[in-house]
Each structure stands twice: as C-alpha cells, then as structure tokens.
Design a protein that fits this description.
Length: 178
C-alpha cells in the first residue's frame, strides 16, 4: 500500500503528466480545430473560451506553471501537517478540481466527437488516481464524507486562480520570443 504522504505527493506527478499532454498538443490542435470548435460551441459560451483559442504553447505553459505553484503549496502544506490535518481541506479542494476536470475533458471529447488534448491522461491517470486517493483518505480516517462534501463548493475558487494564471500566461507570452 502506498504511504498516504507519497500518495499526496503523487498528485503533482499526475497533474504534470496530464498537463504535459495538454501543453504539447493544445496549440496545434486548436489551430487545426478552431472552426469546428466555433461551429459546435454555443455562442454565449464561445465568448468565454475565445481568448483561450489564441493562446500559444508558451502562454499555456506559463498558465500551467501558475496552477502548479498553487497545487505545490497545497501538497507541501498538506504533507507537512498531515497528522494534524490542518491543510487537508486545501488539498481536497485541489483533488476535487482535478477529479471534476476529468469530466470536462470527457465532455469536450463527446460534444466535439473527437480527441481533445488532455482526455487520454484525464481518463487513464487522473480518474484512477483521484478515486484511489479519495478511497485511501476515507479508509485511513483522515477524511469523512461530510468533509468531502463540505469542501466541494470551494472548488469554485479555481475560477479566479485560472483567470489569473491565464492572464499571467498571456502577458508572459508577449515577452517570451517565439
């Protein structure tokens, strides 16, 4: 059995494998599929995602790095205070976001009826990791169903984090030579 602290550290590895798939694939994929995306996605939703369609690989990588910094803080704080459980809710929020992110990827692939960057690692790595981690944390008695449900709404806090990360990526992309 995997030591719980190791399992929590593994969160960052799973995140990076998943985001490497996205970083490597997204710019070329969006360039090739932009018209299909515009035809398929409803207009009001298109207004929200339109800025993402012009991000290049460097900009996206910077945005991912910002998110990675937040996740790293969650993991480090959680592992160093695991016995007290002080930052476990912070980690749970991050785990919820990653788990729910799987369904966003699957939804994109279903709606667009094609491969979308990130869907393979979301299903093959993120989904099993998330389910196993939830199971192990519950089994160890570190979390309860009540704690899982009560931290779920805080997953919405990812929205401003993603917004700032994407803005930082956009600005950095103007500085980074292509």
């Amino acid at each position: 059995m995997l030591e719980l602290s190791h399992l929590i550290w593994l969160f960052l590895v799973v995140f990076m494998f998943h985001d490497f798939e996205e970083i490597v694939m997204v710019e070329g994929w969006v360039r090739a599929k932009k018209d299909i995306i515009r035809q398929t996605v409803p207009e009001r939703l298109m207004k929200i995602i339109e800025p993402s369609l012009s991000m290049n690989t460097a900009q996206f990588a910077v945005a991912v790095s910002c998110v990675f910094a937040v996740l790293s803080a969650a993991v480090i704080l959680t592992v160093t205070t695991l016995s007290a459980g002080t930052y476990l809710p912070f980690f749970l929020v991050c785990l919820h976001v990653m788990f729910l992110h799987v369904f966003m990827h699957v939804g994109h692939a279903v709606v667009l009826r094609m491969y979308t960057p990130g869907v393979v690692t979301a299903v093959a790595l993120v989904l099993p990791y998330s389910l196993y981690t939830y199971d192990r944390l519950l089994e160890a008695g570190l979390v309860t169903w009540s704690l899982l449900w009560s931290t779920l709404p805080f997953s919405l806090l990812i929205i401003p984090v993603l917004y700032v990360a994407h803005r930082v990526g956009e600005v950095a992309g103007k500085v980074i030579p292509r």
